[in-house]
TrEMBL record:
Pfam families: GGDEF, PAS_4. The keyword Ion transport does not apply. It catalyses: 2 GTP = 3',3'-c-di-GMP + 2 diphosphate. Its EC number is 2.7.7.65. The keyword Kinase applies. This is diguanylate cyclase. Keywords: Kinase, Transferase.
Length: 316
């Protein structure tokens, strides 16, 4: 009577494990498959009777053998449960993601629990793997992370030109100044400004003026290295940090930019616009006491370039 009741309960339990939305795999200590529930059948396309008794790594050669063996050995030896989240390892079984709502993810993200199964005398005899489908959670978390990265990037850059915005750029000037104080490498700072920009706006309109600003930014980007930092300092004023660059090399870079702009044409709906820029360079020496004084030196050189007739590069 008692046995029958137990057997009934057992069936009831098995039915539940069969249909639950969690993968259940029972292995012996040599990784032969002892149980494989409906979830696993559905996602792998392999039935329980096909897989029964087979070596897990033979059927799924993609499974990281050394890693899983180490985990399972620890679980068996210490008789404790282990947990791995999708963030440590996206999945154990490479199942295609079949849920339409999270269709952007190619594979199912999984959390994994590894539990010991003991015999009546308390020895670990088998291992149970529980595989949880966390694709929806993982993909929304990843989307959120992507959105946050984008937001961080947007808050650092200037909308019109895509260059660094003033705040970000100034922070970098400050950081570069501190770096110089520690390592003393030659570093140059450039400030430049579009000449007679007011008349561009007056003659062609504000939108065409914006096109000119965008053009100047693009020419700058085309002529500096990855390690240089260009920013939009104000309306039509820009700044460039040239790390590990002395004034002579800075002058070469600036002449290249100045020349490309002088010889370029901005095609706008209001007409084709030609313009020039004036540039000031300040190499970092021991004299500035803070980054603002360094910027002031570059700005003074820029002012001299304007005074000297514009469309030129002056080293301060
Ligand atoms: N289109 C446009 N114009 C801007 C923007 N920001 C500032 N300006 C304009 O830029 C002009 C700057 O003019 P000024 O500082 O007088 O100098 P300038 O005409 O360039 O003359 P110099 O610098 O002396 O060669 C002003 O007319 C501003 O309105 C912007 O984002 N877009």
């Amino acid at each position: 009577m008692g046995f029958k009741q137990n057997a009934n309960e057992f069936h009831w339990l098995m039915d539940m494990l069969e249909s639950v939305e969690v993968g259940l795999v029972v292995l012996d200590l040599d990784f032969h498959i002892q149980a494989w529930n409906g979830f696993m059948e559905h996602h792998s396309g392999i039935t329980a009777s096909q897989i029964q008794g087979q070596l897990l790594f033979d059927v799924f050669p993609d499974i990281p053998k050394a890693w899983l063996t180490r985990k399972v050995d620890a679980v068996a030896m210490l008789n404790i449960r282990a947990f791995t989240s999708w963030e440590q390892r996206p999945y154990l079984f490479k199942f295609r993601n079949t849920r339409p709502i999270t269709g952007t993810e190619a594979y199912m993200f999984q959390n994994l629990t590894i539990s010991p199964i003991t015999n009546p005398s308390g020895e670990v005899e088998k291992i149970c793997l529980l595989i949880y489908d966390v694709t929806e959670f993982a993909s929304s978390k990843r989307a959120l992370e992507r959105a946050n990265e984008q937001l961080a990037r947007l808050s650092m850059t200037d909308r019109l030109t895509g260059l660094l915005n003033r705040g970000t750029w100034e922070n970098l000037v400050d950081a570069e100044f501190e770096r110089f104080r520690r390592y003393g490498q030659a570093t140059s700072l450039v400030m430049f400004d579009i000449d007679h920009f007011k008349s561009v706006n007056d003659n062609y309109g504000h939108l065409a003026g914006d096109e000119v600003i965008r053009h100047a930014a693009q020419i700058t980007r085309n002529n500096v290295r990855q390690s240089d930092s260009a920013g939009r300092y104000g309306g039509e004023e820009f700044g460039i940090i040239l790390p590990e660059t002395d004034t002579e090399s800075a002058r070469v870079i600036c002449e290249r930019i100045r020349d490309a702009i002088e010889n370029g044409v901005v095609n706008t709906t209001a007409g084709n616009i030609q313009y020039t820029i004036s540039m000031g360079i300040a190499q970092l020496t021991d004299s500035p006491e803070n980054y603002m004084q360094w910027m002031q030196k570059a700005d003074e050189a820029l002012y001299k370039a304007k005074q000297g007739g514009r469309n030129r590069v002056i080293v301060g």
